[in-house]
Design brief:
Length: 344
């Protein structure tokens, strides 16, 4: 299912309106001079950017402009995904081929941006084109620039597809876009990534009814994001599933995203059960070993002689370890058949 969802991120963009760059001319000129030897890796590109720019806004522009100038959109790229890829694998592939779909554009942006000191994330969701929700999901990015969250879509910023052919055309609409503006075309699966104090529901996005969101209670996305960053993977997945369901499931790719999260949660639970069971077994074996040590000592007429406290310590240790094992076993939720038999 993960593979199918990723393959669906083909991210066609049509009907974009081109804009002339508003500033950043110097950034573009400097990035056009980057040596080819520096563009083989994300680290090389980041090193060049860090060596030539200081401000976060210029660095974010440098990342964006290099990607949209040098990466071409290609439908063939989606067929190169054979398994759920790691970010470093995506980066290596896109820099080798200089082609990709939104999965590759967004991942490369985040890989470089994080290396130049811009806190960034890939966002998954779906989009509107010409007033209608597209039948495929999409990926874009968030970047924390000068203490403000902005949104970037390097795929749509690079150009558009016309007649099955990629047309490179810089579109600055998707560079450092404000969340309240991009929500009109980009809807994250998880409303946390809207970066809005009054998130828009899926229903409102479909209908274009954005004002209705202002009537709802204030959502402190900054605190929620902080909790997300501090949480374990399991907790992140649990919270994301709750937010997605609460925001409304209006299409098949949101359902697919939820299935992936639920599958991940079940995998986490299975791993937790196995870890808990193994820990309980280790405690049990250690307790039995301590008890056997006491029995062997007793069978030897408690020789050589020792003080009473050491003897009591043997018994206390055995009791503690066996009780600890029992307490852990009680906490295992929905154990499998083998575990259940051992627990009983």
């Amino acid at each position: 299912m993960k593979l199918l969802l990723i393959a669906a991120f083909i991210c066609v963009s049509v009907g974009l309106w081109a804009q002339k760059p508003a500033g950043y001319t110097r950034v573009g000129r400097i990035m056009s001079q980057i040596p080819d030897s520096s563009t083989a890796t994300a680290d090389g590109i980041a090193l060049y950017i860090n060596s030539n720019f200081v401000s976060q806004s210029e660095k974010s522009r440098a990342v964006f402009i290099w990607i949209v100038r040098n990466i071409s959109y290609s439908f063939d790229s989606m067929f190169s995904v054979h398994a759920y890829p790691k970010p470093e694998e995506i980066t290596r592939r896109i820099l080798n081929t200089r082609t990709g779909v939104c999965l590759h554009y967004a991942s490369l942006f985040v890989e470089i941006a994080n290396r130049v000191g811009i806190r960034s994330y890939v966002i998954q969701g779906y989009v509107k084109q010409q007033g209608r929700v597209a039948p495929i999901p999409h990926m874009w990015c968030a970047g924390y620039v000068d203490s403000v969250w902005y949104l970037f879509d390097p795929t749509w910023g690079a150009g558009y597809v016309s007649g099955g052919r990629f047309v490179r055309e810089l579109n600055n609409t998707y560079f450092m876009a404000k969340p309240e503006n991009l929500i009109r075309s980009h809807m994250p699966f998880d409303p946390l990534w809207q970066f809005l104090t009054h998130p828009v529901t899926a229903e409102e996005f479909y209908k274009g009814n954005y004002r209705n969101a202002l009537r709802r209670n204030y959502f402190n996305y900054a605190d929620t994001l902080k909790a997300y960053e501090d949480a374990a993977e399991y907790e992140r997945a649990m919270a994301a599933a709750r937010r997605i369901e609460s925001n409304g499931v209006k299409n098949s790719f949101t359902e697919a995203k939820l299935r992936i999260i639920r599958n991940d949660l079940e995998n986490y639970r299975n791993k937790l059960r196995v870890d808990q069971f193994n820990t309980a077994v280790n405690y049990f074996n250690a307790g039995v070993a301590e008890m056997n040590r006491f029995v062997a000592y007793g069978n030897n007429q408690f020789l050589p002689e020792t003080d009473t406290l050491r003897i009591i310590h043997m018994l206390d240790s055995a009791e503690y370890l066996l009780n600890a094992s029992a307490e852990i076993l009680k906490k295992i939720e929905n154990p499998d058949v083998g575990q259940a038999g051992s627990i009983m």
